[in-house]
Amino acid sequence: MSLDLKSLVRTIPDYPKPGILFRDITTLIEHPEGFKESVERLAEAHRGLGFTHVAGIEARGFIFGAGVAIALGVGFVPVRKRGKLPGTTIGQNYALEYGVDTIEIHADVLSNVHKVLVVDDLIATGGTAIAAVGLIRRTGAICDHAAFAIDLPDLGGADKLRAEKVNVSALMAFEGH
């Protein structure tokens, strides 16, 4: 029997600012069966596609991404905010609402012999996910799939990723912001 994962996601109105409906995945990951089923569904949708790594985007993408990597039997690549990884890194800038930020991966982890699945908890405007795909592609690795627990389709991020020739999947969608 399949769980209704959407019912396990808590909505918090007016967070972090008025008018926003924050989709809180902590209630999903606190539910043992719901968390396990989420990871299994994400992995199953990508099994047999030749992935060598899963790249999880900081921070909640680590939660789902590590589980998916284990389920697929592949390596895990943390995509971190600038300055958080030791050793030599490569970075990618991306636009924020007010400014620019940078994400990084280790410079020596991926190359043209790898195929990478990007995983995060939620896709909203798509800025971070597009930056992660661009960063991974700069290594020569193939990166043409991204998976999310939640899609906020009204914000257009999944469509922006598709425009970058990325196959996008999500376990659930929530209308609104």
Structural account:
- This protein has helices spanning 26-29, 32-44, 60-72, 127-138, 157-163, and strands spanning 10-13, 21-24, 53-57, 75-81, 89-96, 99-106, 115-123, 142-151, 167-173.
- With 177 residues, it is α/β, with parallel strands linked by helices.
- It has one domain (48-173): 3-Layer(aba) Sandwich (Rossmann fold), CATH 3.40.50.2020.
- A 7-stranded mixed β-sheet has the order 5-6-4-3-7-8-9, with helices on both faces.
- Helix 2 (32-44) crosses helix 3 (60-72).
- The longest helix has 13 residues, at 32-44.
- 40% of the residues are buried.
- The mean pLDDT is 96.
- One of its GO terms (molecular function) is adenine phosphoribosyltransferase activity.
Summarize the structure in short.
By secondary structure, this protein is an alpha/beta fold. It is built from five helices and nine strands.
